[in-house]
Amino acid sequence: MSMIPIENIIVGKRLRVLNDAAVVSLSGSIRDQGLLVPLLVTPVHGYPDGKSEMYWLVAGNHRLEACKLLGWTEIQATITAMSDIDRELAEIDENYMRSDLTGMQKEEHLAKRKEKYLVKFPETKHGTAGANKRWEKNADCTGAICIPDVDCTGATHVQAHDVIDAVPVTSPPPSFIQDTAQKLGIAPCTVARSVRRATQITPEVRETIRDIPSIANSNKERDALASMPKTEQKAAVEAVKTGKAKSIREITGKSPKKRTKAVAPFQGENCIKDENEPWDIEAVQPPDGLQDAEAVMPPPTPIDWKKVGKEYQTKISILEDEIRRMRSTIRELKKDASSWESRALKAEAELASIRAVV
After folding, report:
1. pLDDT tens digit string along 292-348?
2. Are residues 51 and 113 in the same domain?
């Protein structure tokens, strides 16, 4: 960690908008306790004005602004060399772990993460099956590095230890969903659904529904909206906004589409496929090389809470009856016990009198 001038830190365009109230609150904490978590920055190469110690901010924008508010001129930071793509991925991951992001903001962060991840690892775009072949085609079973365009069955391949600059054979990168689920600690299906919502709902409609809590705060509503043709989404949202419809799900339920059974290889079970939606299997990559199912994940079936309530009420009534029967049995057993105790006392008295005579 190093102390670096605040004026030498370039913030750049951020995915997460600054929260002024949070900055003020954080500045008070930093004033009282100091900066507990340093910033994360990466050096800028070839900065136009010739300054040699400029840094891109990777994580800690709110902390940086809070320290500026306190009048600091230097700040503690961890300096790590990163590419532009790695810097953006690190920013996305750090922002995603914040608890103050809404569901929609998290979806947008994951969609951006996918965009950047595929730039870094374009070979993962269509699943890892093809990637494995591309990574393995230049290596034979002995671990030799093969000369491109030369048959590895002959003697025209070179052992890695014979070449100073030989590139080692490494494992192919994981798919976007595998990598995201592992690093962010979320389920693969959550990643797939989130990216689908962020990409299948048009930007204009996303901006509109931010001010409609019944849609913005409901995963089911956004799932239903994402399943609609993009040309119909704006009208559907307007219908909910003006009160003509109670929900997006109500609108999509008015004209049910033909649904057929289809096997979802990423789940290992049958699921419902909508014939009017793309069956894009691209994201969650199992070990056997099957491609991911990222784009189409049908919305969950609504729960009939009245039916569930009746079922539980019936179970409660049965248990109450059983308890009453058990209590009645206990009372009868207590009566029997009292009767037997009385008979035992009489028998003991008779026995004592007989012994006295004898």
Report:
1. 444 445 555 677 778 888 888 888 888 888 898 888 888 888 888 888 888 888 888
2. no
Q: Establish if 272 belongs to a structural domain.
A: no
Mind listing the pLDDT tens digit for each residue in 42-80?
888 755 554 558 888 888 888 999 999 999 999 999 998
Q: Is residue 183 part of a domain?
A: yes
d(CA 248, CA 237): 7
Does 124 share its domain with 239?
yes
Cα separation, 3 vs 73, in Å, equals 10
Cβ–Cβ < 8 Å for 207, 236: no
CATH number of the CATH domain containing 23: 3.90.1530.10
In a domain, 134, yes or no: no
State residue 47's pLDDT score: 59
H or E element that contains 40: strand 39-43
CA dist 104 to 163, 206, 246, Å? Answer: 51, 8, 20
Question: Domain limits at 108?
Answer: 102-129+165-255+292-303
Number of domains in the chain: 2
128 pLDDT higher than 50 = no
Q: How far apart are CA 81 and CA 28, in angstroms?
A: 31
Mean pLDDT of the chain: 75
Mean pLDDT calculated for residue range 282-292: 38
Q: What's residue 201's pLDDT?
A: 93
Strands 55-59 and 9-10: parallel
Q: What is residue 340's three-state secondary structure?
A: helix
CB distance 278 to 295 below 8 Å: yes
Q: Do 124 and 188 lie in a common domain?
A: yes
Are 120 and 235 within one domain?
yes
112 belongs to a structural domain: yes
Say whether pTM exceeds 0.70.
no
